[in-house]
Design brief:
47% helix, alpha+beta, elongated, 118 residues, 2 domains
Amino acid sequence: MASGLDFFRLIGSFALVLGLLALVLWGLRRLQNRGGFAGASKRQLQVIESLSLGPRQKVVLLRVGSRELVLGVTPTSITALDSQAASAATQAATPSFAADLQMATEELRQHLEPSHGI
């Protein structure tokens, strides 16, 4: 009988450890979603939007403090394509910025395409 009791004690202890682990992970996730242990601090770095150009290339609109950056991201490099003040970028998108973004993505696509002349 003692071995049966030991088995249930082992299973109960294991379940308690798993429960505590799940509780700690849940608490850490909540802290992460709130912005860290400070809680009230506003994030200075935000990914506003991301556009995939290929399997491993993309264009990212990133807000850093009061600036917004358009970055070209590949597996081997990150290239700044454009930068502007965030206050101007948060207003309705002007055709000139949209045209600039379109031109930057086309340049990045041309740069990333393998040359066929070899």
